[in-house]
Amino acid sequence: MLQAPPAEPGMREDEVDTPALLIDLDAFEHNLDTMAALLAPTGAKLRAHAKTHKSSVIAKLQMARGAVGQCVQKVGEAEQLAWGGIPDVLVTNQVVAPRKLARLAALAGICKVGLCTDDPAQVALAEQAAEAAGVRLPVLVEIDVGMGRAGVEHGPAAVALAERIAASKHLMFGGLQAYHGSAQHIRAPEARAAAIAEAVARSRRTVEQLKQRGLDCPIVGGAGTGTFRHEATSGVYTEIQAGSYAFMDVDYAKNDDAPPFRQSLFVLSQVMSRATPGVAVVDCGHKGVSVDSGMPGVWERPGLRYAGASDEHGKILIEDGTAPALGEKLRLAPGHCDPTVDRYDWYVGVRKGRVECLWPIAARGAMA
Q1: Origin, by domain of life (predicted)?
Q2: 13-22+260-360, what's its fold?
Q3: For residue range 282-330, what is the model confidence (pLDDT) as tens digits?
Q4: Domain 43-247 bears CATH identifier 3.20.20.10
Q5: Which residues make Cβ contacts (< 8 Å) with residue 117, sequence separation at least 6?
């Protein structure tokens, strides 16, 4: 069921119904501009990860600042972006269900769309879908650069898979997917840099071996908000797949050298109970904010700590400072932005205390 819009343009922030997903537009635009400026001298291009924002509106704002396209994790996300007018979408994931592959191939009629593979059986399935749809799909080989999740072994195994794709009449070899997700939140800068250095080395060796077999590698994609500067300046990566940079979250802020972006995403909550001394209860629990990467922060209220969540309640301890009043609105900074966004149908864009816009989160819940 589509959630009713929690606000209208022109109203004050403290009039917004809660819980609601807010974007501080000044901070958000700063983040988009900062990423564009940092990547400009490197030659690497941004292919922003829409699994974070799930919105063709935001995708278009990123592309207006130079992004070459978007990447997603699910076919449903690719559909929403393509239907929203995004011309270039990459599914940075393996797709094996024939029905999903047919949906993906159908999108090739309205945009450029590709996917990743790490197994010859996946290639065969993608080939069948492309042939049935009468299209030719770009397919990237995903290599394991240290994450230990998906990805074929770098080097000869990856080259063999690329040759299998290149030999197909219905597919084209699109390059390498080389994402090291677990490195994004390594707290110590030196350890994080070392992890990415190994990812770069594996990618470089694979690109060199592809060239020896006569295969160009148009894309080497990967990186994220925590490491993008390493990949962008490596001379190997051509596309940067950062997503959280647009919003930020509490977990990224814990890195010893936090990324140079501002917190722009918040969940607006309201104090609904003050019955227990030293405690304020807000109307935002597990259903309103993700706690998989830790509790949200109470924005610009250092004496308040979000200490625990149940389904519909958030428990805030009043440790110091001014206690919030019954009915007061508080901004919560999510611990993890991606799954928090997936709980809402609308972004409420605010600037200087006023609602400026509402944007639909079209790919919310697109798990298939």
Answers
A1: Bacteria
A2: Lyase, Ornithine Decarboxylase; Chain A, domain 1 (2.40.37)
A3: 999 999 999 999 999 999 999 999 999 999 999 999 998 789 999 999 9
A4: yes
A5: 94, 123, 126, 139, 140, 141, 142, 161, 165
